[in-house]
Structures are given as structure tokens and as C-alpha cells.
Amino acid sequence: MPVLTTDAESETGIPKSLSNEPPSETMEEIEHTCPQPRLTLTAPAPFADETSCQCQAPHEKLTIAQARLGTPVDRPVRVYADGIFDLFHSGHARALMQAKTLFPNSYLLVGVCSDDLTHKFKGFTVMNEAERYEALRHCRYVDEVIRDAPWTLTPEFLEKHKIDFVAHDDIPYSSAGSDDVYKHIKEAGMFVPTQRTEGISTSDIITRIVRDYDVYARRNLQRGYTAKELNVSFINEKKYRFQNQVDKMKEKVKNVEERSKEFVNRVEEKSHDLIQKWEEKSREFIGNFLELFGPDGAWKQMFQERSSRMLQALSPKQSPVSSPTRSRSPSRSPSPTFSWLPNKASPPSSPKAASASISSMSEGDEDEK
């Protein structure tokens, strides 16, 4: 493979071209011992000073096209990404994921600037440097963390950590008196751009906290923090605690209202069920009443049957008109020609028929006399 030559460096000392001269036999015999990407996630990523690359093999310069084809095959492509990483969030993680997946076999080194450099060139941070280091160590895409990373990358730093490419978003980063601190990296062909995540940044998170300061101060007072820890004055402390009490009362009233609504809804549902059941029962009762006492009801038929039976039992059997008269004995009174036994014929259909029958029977008795 081609190796770097001393005259193929830019003014900044970063290699710009490749040499076509083959490496010496001694260099070919040396194997790469660069650290490999993490295969398991059971432990945090190591720090660079704990596992620095001690590989003595020549570290040839790669092009982006070669790296994307999987070259070289005997070592991973070492990609570097740096930043402050204050209040580590999903935007940071997505940028590191892009840097990690730029090439088939990448070893991601992440540089984190110290508090002194950050406060000098950017501003005060919420998390201190130790907290920011640890946040990066526990990101799954990171293979190695470099503490106290430089604000501007130097050739010595790139050579020390054997960095092949630098990953960052393509927006010019003006700082430390420079229009773009990555300008010399871009000119050397070592810069690989990543995409920013819209809608999330450390500045946005801090803006939310500052905007809703009273809410978070009351929240932490309620959680047990003292006014001194929150840097809150005595008057503001009393105001926040009073507001917390008011909010609690509002919450209680809201809960009571919700429970009352639930109770009213349950009562309405039960009353609706009761009314529905009452309507069903009333319909059933009215139907049964009409079936029993209506014009064609069973009670009327039963009453008519019983009336007919009573009239039949009370009515005498009528003698036939053509029957011969019996001779009367002078010593005896004439015997009646009717019997008090119930007639087997069909009973009279109405009380009028029954009365007519009795009248005819009376007329027959008068004729006999």
C-alpha cells in the first residue's frame, strides 16, 4: 500500500497526497495492532490514555472512497468526532451514530473539551467535564473517549491518535479567531460531514429551563431542595411554596370534580337501566292484564263457562210437546212432568235464553192444569 512521504504535507503539517513508493520490507513485516471496535456493550468505552494505539505499523493515508470500500482490511478506519456534549441528548447520539456508520469497519474516537477550554471559547456548561466524559463513555457508538481534547486539531494530535477522518456537521464553526476551525481538515481531504438533528440542542434545552424557571424552582422545592441550594431568595421561596399549596388545592378540586362526574354518570346509567326495566315490566303487566280481563280475555271465557254451568244446573228439563197426557188419579195430585236433573244438552247461550226457557216451562205447567 502507498505510504506517506515527508514532502507530501500541507503548510499545516497534515498529509495531502500519497506516495507511490512501496514500503520497505521491515515495515511490511510489522502487523497492525490498533484497537478493534467494541463488540459487546457490557462495559463503558475506555479512555484514550488507558488504551492508546501503540501500533508500530505504518499508518497509510486513506481516501474516503477507499474507506467506504472496506480498505484497509487489516485495521479499522479511525474516525474522530469532537464536541462539548453538555446535557447529552439525542442530537449528540445521532451525530455519533452517523460518524460510527460512515464506513464498514470504523473505530470511533470522541474528543471532549475540558471545562477551561469550553468556558473560555463557548461559555458556561451545566455539566462539568467529568460528567460529560462519563456520558460519552456510556454511548453505544463510542469506542474510545479522549479527555481534554484540543479546541483546534493539530497535526501532532492527529498523528498521536492515528486519525484517518474527522466527522462533524458541515456548517462552518467560527471560534477562537477562525472562520472555521475545521477548514484545514477539509482542505486535507480528511473531513466527512454529518447531519444535524433539527429541533434539539443543548441551547434549546437551557432556553426551556430559563423560560420556565419558576416551574422548575417550585418543582425542586417540592422535592426537598432548599432555597439556598436553588439560590432562591426568602420571599421567592415563600411565594413558590404558596403557589405549590394553591396547585395542590386545585388538583384536589379537580379530582373531586372528576369523581363527581363519574358518580353522576354511574347514577344516570343505573337510572336509565331501572327506567328501561320498569318499562319492560309495565308492558308485561299490561299485556297480562289485557290477556286476562280484556274483551277476549280468559277471565271472560271462564266466567261465561261457569255462568252457563250454573244456569244449566238451575234450569229444569222441558217436556216434549207431542208426549201423551197421563190420566189423573182423583185421589192424588197431578205429578210434575219435568225432572230436576241437569240437562245434557248444550246450555243456553245467554241469560235471556235461560229466562225464555223458564217462561215456556211455566206456560206448559199451566196448560197441564
Automatic annotation (TrEMBL):
Residues 80-208 form the Cytidyltransferase-like domain. Keywords: Coiled coil, Lipid biosynthesis, Lipid metabolism, Nucleotidyltransferase, Phospholipid biosynthesis, Phospholipid metabolism, Transferase. Residues 1-27, 309-369 are annotated as: Disordered. SUPFAM superfamilies: Nucleotidylyl transferase (SSF52374). GO terms for molecular function: choline-phosphate cytidylyltransferase activity; phosphatidylcholine binding. Pfam families: CTP_transf_like (PF01467). Belongs to the cytidylyltransferase family. This is choline-phosphate cytidylyltransferase.
